[in-house]
Design brief:
Four copies of one chain form a homotetramer. Chain A is an all-alpha fold and 251 residues long. The first copy, chain A, is built from 13 helices and no strands. In chain A, 37% of the residues are buried.
């Protein structure tokens, strides 16, 4: 009886009515709050002013997510596929169960390591909890379908982009390496400039200084417009199709 | 009789003929002139050369807008919904009446405060008068409708953008914090770099310097193209639909 | 008889066959060569190495264009509208005749002035000869028509862009003026930053340094994506319509 | 018999089944590996740690590509067009045979020159091997067709872009040359700034400093949005058409 109630409250497919169950709504809020706290904690000046609060909150969040994880594991038995010990083990390796595990694992891994970089990485991993929100959204299927239908064309434009990236950095390496060995001394080094230019980000920390380098850079920048126009055009066409198919039965 | 004339001249729905009534056209011009003067006044070198002119003009504009506000309040009685004292009070809390109030309020608030920042903010608020022009435009409904019809998909792409923003700043915090504590020392700090990169603005005041940081930055910059392509594609599809529906009855 | 031959060779509507007449093709080549020479001449190091060549070429180009102008004026008599002295005077004030005049006028104006800036401006005006090419292209009507059909929506998005520009520079003036009086000390000064950010150009010569300024700057940068997405979406929809109408009769 | 087997394995049109023949798959992998090695070799710190490995690998790759080239030349005889000595000579001048030659030629040219720049250029030319992959892709026809169908409109927008580029750099030369002779001292010099602004890359290494220069720069930046919107809109419309035609027979 308890298991049935838990299942209805926790499993999105167990909730008959429209929207999310009250418990899942609470979980969503909890994920957002925990992520917000995790972001704030990385700022030393904020954490140092309330050192106990952040440690306490993290313990609280992990405790709540652990309880939620165990409850989900227990409630999974309602589904015939995950009945018994073997079923539960099978459930633990489903996609969303693994994602749920990510919400609590970094905390326990934090006891093992004392390396500053690893601790930072674990803090960042807490933000991956946000991906748990995906479980509750049955909605983005329309966009995902439109993307999927043109996956092939999108991949092709990514391939063209990659080729452009390599060729432009190769040419700038050839003409600029003598003038700026630090920034353009090899193709991998020139890639940093190349990606900033082709995506039209243009930091300006590295720019060609020779006349020939500027010529190739100009061609790269113009090619960058095509690079943006191509996926945009493909997506626009894909969404246009998707919307028309969606609207068609309504009329 | 006066009230009826005022109503016809002031209320956009009171004017039967095409376009705006003469009085409303004058109000539009006044709003534009007042905004232009407000912009010029913020430049010290211009204001100091004509100190009296700017003070005088502002008093004049506020006086005119106040008269207009009172006239609108009086004329609102023509509409059965806003008759009597209670109706007028109700009118004062309608959307456009509140917007109209913004045109005169900053002036009077300016007498209360002497804080430089507050005075600057009040000057800026004068520019909000421009939003009053929205009252006179029945036109942008076509665009607004197209946006509304795809609001859900647009919000979703905003959500994806927000997630990308957080994840990219989190990863750059993890790999760059040691090398540049001032710029990437926390997730909120890294956000500034992240937003400049994902929107392809790319100021270049903050750039990663470690190899790993550049790798993640490159991935972020490429993701930024997708970030631009997605809403553009959705809007293109939405406008395409809207134009086709609009043109259909004409054929 | 001469006048008729000239008319056939010079007036695009006088040439019966497909494409351009031999004389007009020559004129096109001449315009391109003259523009290329004009660009090179601005570079001092190139001009100083061949001082006589550039002066001589310019005299040659102006002589040729003058002859062409007079020939066109003479041949215009073939058209019943431009017959006689009065007709010729009327022809001189048609759009393309005025554009043709721009090709030769800067040369003669160059004798009047000795101001360095004016001489530079006249050199630049030589490039306006390129606009004469428009006379020979009957082709861009398809694109122009698509743009025209959605002119209203495009203007509206320009209006929204202008409003965004003013509001973002106003807010940055309010929060950054104290920290950077030189760059954000007034709304017109802040406009330079604002336009660089909203168009996602992002030079990085001026960036906000206060936390509040960065927050507003981030919002501006995100709004910049919408600013790009909106006209792109409108144009995509307009071209899509235009192409479909063009293809429809063929099927 | 050997020739027939080779033909089936090497010529894409000789392979009956779906996809690529095993030998061609191997060639694809080889091209990717050789390109990756060529990229790494340009980085001195990597090459110096394994000097023999890179020289050896390059010899190996060239040997393999040479064998492949000769095998293709031999197998070409299966095609009636390329039979006999004359046919083989004709084959050697087909597009793809020339592209294949590029894969091996730089190696042999490397023995002739000792100029650092030429050696770098030859290293970069190795990356052109990647273009050989195009031979194996029958797929990008859909995109290429969509591009081709609107080639005229795309070229026109390139022409408009070129005109904008010239005009904006000409105007900035006129107003900024006095203040920044090094960066804006001639139209070709101003082009570097102009291309960075119109493509919205915006490095920020060169920015106008005069008020008039900033005004023109702002107009250029806004025009840059149109420059991006136009090809994007054309491509979106072209892809939309292409996808609809492709989907039509399926329904």
């Amino acid at each position: 009886m308890l298991r049935q109630t838990l299942y209805r409250q926790l499993a999105p497919e167990g909730w008959q009515a429209y929207g999310l169950s009250p418990v899942n709504k609470l979980v969503c809020v909890l994920i957002l709050v925990a992520s917000f706290v995790a972001i704030l904690e990385t700022e030393d000046s904020i954490r140092d002013s309330l050192p106990w609060a952040f440690s306490g909150l993290e313990v609280l969040f992990v405790a709540l997510f652990s309880v939620e994880y165990l409850a989900r594991l227990y409630a999974a038995g309602e589904d015939p596929r995950y009945r018994g010990w073997r079923g539960r083990a099978r459930y633990m390796f489903t996609w969303w169960a693994l994602v749920d595990l990510i919400a609590i694992l970094p905390f326990f891994l934090g006891f093992i390591t004392h390396n500053t970089f690893m601790i930072r990485l674990l803090k960042v991993c807490r933000l991956l909890r946000l991906s748990r929100l995906g479980r509750f959204s049955r909605a983005w299927s329309a966009l995902a379908e439109a993307l999927n239908a043109r996956m092939y064309e999108l991949l092709l434009s990514v391939g063209v982009a990659g080729l452009l990236l390599l060729l432009s950095s190769a040419f700038l390496y050839a003409v600029e390496a003598a003038a700026q060995p630090e920034e353009f001394g090899s193709v991998p080094r020139a890639l940093w400039w190349s990606i900033a230019t082709l995506t039209t980000v243009g930091y300006g920390d590295v720019t060609p200084i020779t006349a020939l380098g500027k010529l190739f850079a100009g061609i790269t920048a113009v090619a960058g417009i095509g690079l943006i126009a191509m996926p945009t055009g493909i997506l626009a066409a894909a969404f246009s199709d998707a919307f028309q198919k969606k609207d068609a039965p309504e009329e």
